[in-house]
Amino acid sequence: MQQLKDLFIRRIYRRIYFFIRWLFFEKPFGLDFHSRDLSVRCQSGGRNSGYVSCPKSFLKDIFSRLSIDSQSSFLDVGCGKGFVLVCAAKMPFGKIEGIDIVSEFVEVAQKNLSILHLDDRIRVTVGDATLFDRYGEFDHIFLYNPFPAEIMSGFIHRLLESLDKSPRGLTVIYANPVCHSLFMEVGRFEIIHEVPNFLTQHKAYIYTVR
Ligand SMILES: C[S@@+](CC[C@H](N)C(=O)[O-])C[C@H]1O[C@@H](n2cnc3c(N)ncnc32)[C@H](O)[C@@H]1O
């Protein structure tokens, strides 16, 4: 009973948070980070987890655990409408990019970045995470539960290939880590932080990679 009550309270808080974000941040500037679009999940037959926006409080807690300087680079794999990228721009990353497989989301992200005058600093492109061939250019990779296990395996394989080709300090941030066991199975990822979030009730794992 208490669990149900907690779930209900969190849901109300989440709605209030996204409403306030829309009212005071999105609407006045003509931005669209609208928080939920699960239609792509149905269209893709479950190969795409759908679009859900990561709340700012979660990102703040995650970023506070990273050591970032102007040499650091950040890639949001499955960037959706670009909210994570906008928050990443407050950190001293030298390079910030996002890719998403859904071109409509990338168009919205590009419009958002242009409204916020961040289009010079951040690049977003349409791309499939399992085919992307520039992982070697990034040392911080962010994922917010973008895809299910069969796609995640392909992504992990590609990421490790990039690390073997360009050895570097690599940090992977995985929020709502439903495929965490796949990362553990390959034996090259080590959890350095676990970050909880009250609003979403999700956690994020921050891994270092060998
Ligand atoms: C849960 S949303 C996260 C959006 C954003 N990162 C955030 O936290 O606000 C996951 C995104 O991953 C994208 N996605 C799913 N499969 C993908 C793939 N194979 N390659 C690239 N992006 C993908 C979806 O289209 C969706 O926009």
Fold and architecture overview:
The protein is α/β, with parallel strands linked by helices and 210 residues long. It has one domain: Rossmann fold. It is built from seven helices and nine strands. It has helices spanning 2-29, 39-43, 56-63, 83-88, 103-115, 149-165, 180-185; strands at 36-37, 51-52, 73-77, 95-100, 122-126, 140-144, 170-175, 189-196, 203-209. Strands 5-4-3-6-7-9-8 form a seven-stranded mixed sheet. A two-stranded antiparallel ribbon has the order 1-2. Strand 4 (95-100), helix 5 (103-115) and strand 5 (122-126) form a beta-alpha-beta unit. The longest helix is centred in the first third of the chain and has 28 residues, at 2-29. The N and C termini lie far apart (44 Å). The model has no long low-confidence stretch (mean pLDDT 93). The chain binds S-adenosylmethionine. The site of S-adenosylmethionine (SAM) has 26 residues, from strand 2, helix 4 and strand 4.
Secondary structure: elements and pairs:
Elements: H1 2-29, E1 36-37, H2 39-43, E2 51-52, H3 56-63, E3 73-77, H4 83-88, E4 95-100, H5 103-115, E5 122-126, E6 140-144, H6 149-165, E7 170-175, H7 180-185, E8 189-196, E9 203-209
Parallel strand pairs: 3-4, 3-6, 4-5, 6-7
Antiparallel strand pairs: 1-2, 7-9, 8-9
